[in-house]
Design goal:
The protein is mainly alpha-helical. The protein contains 6 helices and 7 strands; from the N terminus they run ααβββββααααββ.
């Protein structure tokens, strides 16, 4: 072996050893990366499932309230009211040990909750969604009132064969404007209430003028019973209740209103 070969041998060996070492480090790094990815993926998937399951449970609670006027006492009752599979995966908490999402009624509504990554209910990493009773009550009431007012607009009390298309639209617009202004009045400030009061007066005047011009019959004085407005609109007396089950009241312009939280007609929270 010549001198040049002898001198290059150890360097080549050291270079090869370095390459081997780098390869080992690289393989170890890749193994760590793959392991982290395997761990991270289930975490990310669980987080996405939690978000989807909470949203489904929240929607079920809203649907149940609008149909029944109260929140279900359990996830199973919510599923039955909303038409969901009562044993479906939507109700499972991915962070629990084969446990359902936590479902509880509160002083202001309903709360549905996941245990979070630590699997412990009531800790800082819990994730939750809520459903407010007042919001659902008003949504339920609005739906009921819109239905009754739509029936009223098609009845002899608000529609006549002598009305042209323009006047029919005027009647619909006046009643809609009155209903919207009445709903907004409850939470408006003093200056806005002045504007809304003018809108209410104008809308009522338009309705009265159309009723007089076409000799439409006056609304029945009673809401329920024989000859009451419910019967005359072709619906049952059971529909003459608001979102909370309290009796609706008659109203000269809109036909029916919900008395609001105070249960008294003619006050600021009527709807």
């Amino acid at each position: 072996m010549n001198a040049a070969a002898r001198r290059s041998g150890p360097n080549e060996e050291r270079g090869f050893a370095l390459l081997v070492l780098l390869g080992i480090v690289g393989m170890a790094s890749l193994t760590i990366v793959l392991a982290v990815q395997r761990i991270a993926r289930p975490f990310a998937e669980r987080a996405a499932i939690v978000d989807a399951n909470l949203a489904t449970a929240q929607s079920a609670a809203r649907i149940a309230y609008r149909r029944n006027g109260s929140f279900p006492a359990s996830l199973t009752q919510a599923a039955n009211a909303a038409g969901l599979d009562a044993q479906g995966r939507w109700r499972v908490d991915p962070w629990g040990q084969a446990q359902d999402l936590d479902w509880a009624q509160t002083a202001t509504g309903l709360r549905v909750r996941s245990r979070g990554t630590d699997g412990v209910l009531g800790s800082a990493d819990d994730e939750q969604l809520t459903v407010d009773t007042e919001t659902q009550l008003r949504t339920r009431q609005r739906g009921r009132l819109r239905l009754l007012r739509a029936q009223l607009l098609r009845s002899a009390y608000r529609l006549s064969g002598t009305m042209g298309a323009t006047e029919q639209q005027q009647m619909r617009t006046a009643m809609r404007d009155h209903a919207i202004a009445m709903r907004q009045y409850r939470t408006a400030d003093a200056a806005t209430r002045t504007t809304l009061a003018a809108t209410l007066a104008t809308a009522a005047t338009q309705v009265d003028a159309l009723v007089t011009a076409h000799a439409l019959p006056p609304l029945p004085p009673a809401l329920t019973g024989a000859g009451g407005l419910m019967q005359m609109l072709g619906t049952t007396d059971g529909r003459a209740v608001d979102g909370a089950g309290a009796a609706l009241l008659t109203h000269a312009t809109l036909g029916v209103v919900a008395a609001g939280a105070d249960g008294t007609g003619g006050t600021d929270d009527d709807m």
